[in-house]
Amino acid sequence: MSRSPNAPAGRSVPLRVLPAAAAVALSLAATACSSPGGAPPQTSAAPPQTAAANTGGLTLENAQPLPIPPRPDIFPPPAPPPPPVFRAPTLMTAPDLPQISIGPTPPPPALPEGAPPVPAANRPAASPPPDRTQTAALPPPTPKAPAAPAQPRMEPLTVLFDGTATALPEPAQTRLNAIAERMNANPQLRLQIRSYASGTPETAREARQLSLARALAVRERLGTAGIASTRVDIRALGMEAAGGAPDRLDVEFLNQ
User: Fold this and answer.
1) Which ranges in 40-140 belong to alpha helices (H)?
2) How far is CA 215 from CA 95, 139, 161, 189, 229, in A?
3) Would the pTM count as exceeding 0.70?
4) I want to staple 233 with a disulfide (CB 3.0 to 4.6 A). Which of 121, 184, 192, 240 is the partner?
5) Strand, coil or helix: 232
6) Are 193 and 231 in contact (CB under 8 A)?
7) Helix, strand or coil for residue 170?
């Protein structure tokens, strides 16, 4: 602890250390009191803008507008073409009709002297103009081919089956050969196969499958003879016997 010079003898006063800001303020106040009437001292602190101005920085106060560059030399646009001038068409006049004068009929040439007059009956008659009509010769008629004799109508074929058999009996195959020959002779003929099978209400599905198998067997037999399947219509009717034998197959022409 230091001793203050103004303190009385025998008593020590502690020194107090002031902050730097307070020390600066006290020194300024002492200077102002020592020089009355003088200008107040200027502080070293300056606004940021003033300092920037002193150092040559760009501010709103010292900013200068940039010069505007001169306008480039632009050629003037070409003048629009003048509008077309309407010119009225020149009217043309029809030429005058030629003047045709019909004179008297010239007399016949004079006969030599001393020649007898030619009677009107002996005068040569004017020859008629040639006939320019051309007549085309028609071709000879084409002889018609003799009509094919009409074939007798073929009765429907009924094939009976035993039980659950699907194979065709021998007599039925002979009739199918005759049907195939007629269909090959006439490509327009179409055939329909209606197949039935017996059963019970519980086996109705199996009966329909059995009737379908029998109809397919007949169509395959016709296919081996050259008949397209598209010309054979199949109807598997199952137990719908329609009053006939329950296990049968009917083959009938649709358009013979």
Assistant:
1) 48-54
2) 93, 54, 12, 18, 12
3) no
4) 192
5) strand
6) no
7) helix
